[in-house]
Design brief:
Layout (H helix, E strand, L loop, with lengths): L9 H13 L4 H35 L3 H8 L5
Helix pairs in contact: 1-2
Length: about 80
């Protein structure tokens, strides 16, 4: 592990200390967990944006809905 120095405002520090006490972990563990979670969320957001852009390009290339209309219809009763 590496030791780093982070500057945060007093209110954020107090809130972090309260949560650290409540979750029975030290401040460093809380910050590590929060940073890991944030990085995971950023990665998910990046993948979602990439997928959304890919689907948008696919739709621009041609409307495939007529090809699927027969597949989506309900069977006769």
């Amino acid at each position: 592990m590496e030791t780093i120095q982070v500057v945060i405002d007093q209110k954020l520090l107090q809130a972090a200390d309260r949560v650290a006490r409540k979750t029975k972990q030290n401040r460093s563990a809380l910050v590590r967990d929060a940073l890991r979670e944030h990085l995971k969320r950023l990665e998910v957001r990046t993948r979602e944006e990439r997928d959304q852009a890919g689907y948008a390009k696919r739709l621009e290339a041609g409307d495939e809905s007529p090809l699927w209309e027969g597949e989506a219809s309900w069977p006769a009763e």
